[in-house]
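REVIEWER CHECKLIST
Item 1: Sequence provided? yes
Item 2: Single chain? yes
Item 3: Sequence as submitted:
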Amino acid sequence: MSASIRNGETALTELPIIRPHVVLMDINMPGMSGVECTRRLKNSLPEVQIIMLTVYENTDHIFSALEAGASGYLLRVRLNNQFLHGVKEKVAG
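Item 4: Structure as written out by the authors:
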């Protein structure tokens, strides 16, 4: 099952019901940031693998996402080449 959720506030209410194995989270969402949403989501779903999607190569943004509980990140610039491999890698552990 896949779902598309447009903002962090909705993600925090809907994802605990859906209970996904993997979440692709934009680091720069409208409203609540992807980093803050990740931090809160990991409290209710500690087992979920969250992969951050970002256009930033800024290590501070990436470090903040990983510190918040993200399992990894993919740069949108390289998304076509890395996407499927990155998702499979994170699901496999």
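Item 5: Key structural point noted by reviewer: The domain at 23-92 is CATH 3.40.50.2300 (Rossmann fold).
Item 6: Recommendation: ____
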